Amino acid sequence: MTTRPLVVDFGDRRPEIDQAAWAAPGCTIIGSVRLAPGASVWYGCVLRADTEDISVGAGSNIQDGCVVHADPGFPAVVGSGVSVGHRAVLHGCTIEDDVLIGMGSVVLNGARIGSGSLVAAGAVVLEGTVIPPGSLVAGVPAKVRRALSEDERADIVRNAEGYADRARAHAAATSLLPTGRTDTAAGDRAPA
């Protein structure tokens, strides 16, 4: 297993990883991906921005095995304080602040998930779907089931904060400082 993330420049599209972000060993970050301070990308993830930008906001976490991809005309935007559960797929969509995307869920091109929402595990949010803030979304296709309570919304924030703490611990355990991206020390770099 590699001890660093694979960071790939794709033509003129270059990843920008803040010094206070963390990318796990073995994850792959390709093209114009921006990781804000405190963002974390976990083991086995692929973030591929070879056609449009991907941005991951401050304190957000992309958990193990996720795929984030941008399509022509559809950048992928992940706001601040977002948790993207294990093996979820975000494809050319916008996730606003303080959202939890459940494990194994899929959010497709042009969809927008409003702030403070929860997308249940295994849900499929179809192309162009707009979810209002503070919603519980579930099903295939995903539909708004109800409004989240204030306690549920606070749990989403606590979950992201907990992942930020774990990212710092994993960075120390893997002997990786938070990854900066100014030279090959940022990860194993491969040309496009």
From TrEMBL:
Regions crossing the membrane: none
Coiled-coil region(s): none
Signal peptide, first to last residue: none
Protein name: Gamma carbonic anhydrase family protein
